[in-house]
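Example 3.2
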Amino acid sequence: MINPENHEPIPENYFDAIRETARKSPYSKLLGLDFNEIRKDYACMHLPYKKELEQPAGIIHGGAIASLIDTAVVGAIFSNVKEMPKQIVTVDMHVHYLSAAKEVNLIAHAAVRRRGRTMVCLEVDVVNEATDKIVAHGELGFMMLYDKP
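Structure, written as tokens:
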């Protein structure tokens, strides 16, 4: 599993700026997403349980889990950039659902696997907050877009 201790801390004001940007996103607000921790090339994000996130069988919808995965990586990406991109976009995402999550809060641990100038490859483990059992694993590719010089 992804270990935050393998990643260097970042200044608290930088964490606050990334967190505040995410909190302003209408979709993040709708889901209740929030960062717990951000380190260099690592981010931890919380998805609180809400009845509205359930699918008909009473488990948290896979789309909500995928949204958690796709949003958590943003903190890891911005935690360690040499030049601030104008925009970042998901270009590839694979999600492996490993167990059901029923009436539980979820925690995503996101980490950069490889970072280039314009492409970032990441992985995410989503765990049940109460048991630490892995619920899903994601692998993503993001493109960082810059203004042309």
